[in-house]
Design goal:
Blueprint lengths: L13 H11 L4 H8 L1 H22 L1 E3 L5 E3 L2 H8 L3 H30 L4 H12 L6 H12 L4 H10 L10 H25 L3 H9 L4 H30 L2 H6 L7 H11 L3 H34 L1
Antiparallel strand pairs: 1-2
Helix pairs in contact: 3-14, 4-14, 5-9, 5-11, 9-11, 10-11, 11-14, 13-14
């Protein structure tokens, strides 16, 4: 008959025997290494891919009165037609961009200085840099709210040193950016430090031996080789700072309504899941475009090295 599987004398089909033999055969080192990645792939599937598919599904659908699901792009169109929403997106990108630049300007010199110390001191300094991450973000943000308040220690110090009247820092770009820089600084320092520490010192010594100055060596050798770490840090700061909820809420004093707050409002308060999902997709697309343009810098240096 068509579709029947011939069985071997032992009662098992040749296909099953081949599968069993493949499973039991000795694995190569590469195959064993790939098997170790299975838990990671499962976590990636459950926590990243499936949620993103669900968000995309909600973004391009809408329920009607008959409980039927209709495909539509109205959720995306409504965002750009809504007065003020594009401004919210721009403010989020602006604040996250400023935060990323300031964090990079602090993190790179710090990571560069750390690499000049001995290994034991490097480990201690990296431990001190990452120690604030062990404390809940909400507690750290509230602490900064107390520091920046009119009755806080910062105003007290300014009044004692310069006789200044109390300044209300809360609700300003300074307070929001300062809070974000403090929270996300370890995410910029650590990848840059890891990349700088792996640079072969012989390359730097060779550049100096050939007559190049330390400034020229830094810009032509150290900086290009450390760009992968810089790009990793930019990614790890730009994305979360654009969507954070805690810092604008407590340090913005209600004057800052960023894209993360807008998404939270649509999901939790208004119950408009489809609209909130569309806003999330728009934000992801915009950030990925920014990251793509940022990575062009690294590709430029790669092409330069190939030449």
């Amino acid at each position: 008959m068509i579709g029947t599987v011939k069985k071997a004398p032992g009662g098992r089909s040749p296909l099953l025997k081949q599968i069993k033999a493949y499973i039991k055969r000795p694995k190569t080192a590469l195959e064993r290494f790939k098997l170790l990645g299975i838990p990671y792939y499962l976590i990636l599937l459950v926590l990243v891919i499936i949620p993103m598919i669900l968000i995309l599904f909600y973004a391009i659908t809408t329920p009607n009165k008959d409980d039927a699901i209709l495909l539509t792009l109205n959720n995306f169109i409504a965002f750009f037609q809504e007065e003020g929403f594009v401004g919210v997106l721009w403010d989020s990108i602006r604040i996250s961009g400023i935060t990323t630049i300031v964090t990079l300007l602090i993190a790179y010199p710090l990571a560069y200085i750390i690499c000049d110390y001995k290994l034991k001191k490097q480990a201690l300094i990296i431990l001190l840099v990452s120690a604030p991450m062990w404390v809940n973000m909400l507690l750290r943000t509230i602490a900064w709210k107390q520091i920046l308040s009119t009755a806080g220690p910062l105003n007290a110090a300014l009044g004692w040193l310069f006789g200044m009247e109390p300044i209300n820092f809360l609700g300003t770009d300074f307070a929001v950016v300062l809070g974000m820089v403090y929270i996300f600084l370890p995410f910029m320092v650590i990848p840059i430090y890891n990349n700088l520490s792996k640079i072969d010192n012989r390359l730097i010594e060779a550049s100096l031996d050939l007559g190049a100055s330390r400034k020229y060596t830094f810009f032509k050798v150290t900086l290009p080789l450390s760009l992968p770490g810089v790009l990793s840090g930019v990614t790890m700061v730009l994305l979360p700072s654009a969507t954070t909820l805690v810092v604008p809420r407590f340090l913005g004093e209600g004057r800052y309504f960023l894209i993360g707050n807008l998404i939270e409002q649509k999901f939790l308060k208004s119950g408009l899941w489809n609209y909130g999902a569309a806003i999330s997709i728009i934000l992801v697309v915009v950030l990925f475009i920014i990251l793509f343009l940022t990575k062009k810098v690294d590709r430029f240096h790669k092409d330069e090295e190939d030449d």
